[in-house]
Design goal:
The protein contains 2 helices and 2 strands. It has about 60 residues and is an alpha+beta fold. It has one domain. The radius of gyration is 13 Å and the shape is elongated. It binds zinc ion (ZN). The site of zinc ion has 8 residues, from loops.
């Protein structure tokens, strides 16, 4: 985090894309830019417990 004028913006922890915090705070994916990035981050947490075998691959464009 830096003291930039765009304090209402943050970066997606996964892909580093800028995310508008203002509206996305209402978004279930916040602070991630997308559901996919959220799942990627969750996958890191769950990796030691069980493997994600959902449709992540199918969302890989
Ligand atoms: Zn992202």
């Amino acid at each position: 985090m830096t003291n930039s004028p765009d304090s209402n913006r943050t970066a997606c922890p996964v892909c580093k894309q800028p995310v508008e915090a203002t509206d996305l705070t209402q978004d279930k994916n916040f602070p991630f830019c997308s559901h996919r990035c959220k799942m990627v981050d969750l996958g890191k947490w769950f990796d030691g417990q069980y493997r994600f075998t959902n449709d992540l691959n199918e969302e890989n464009e």
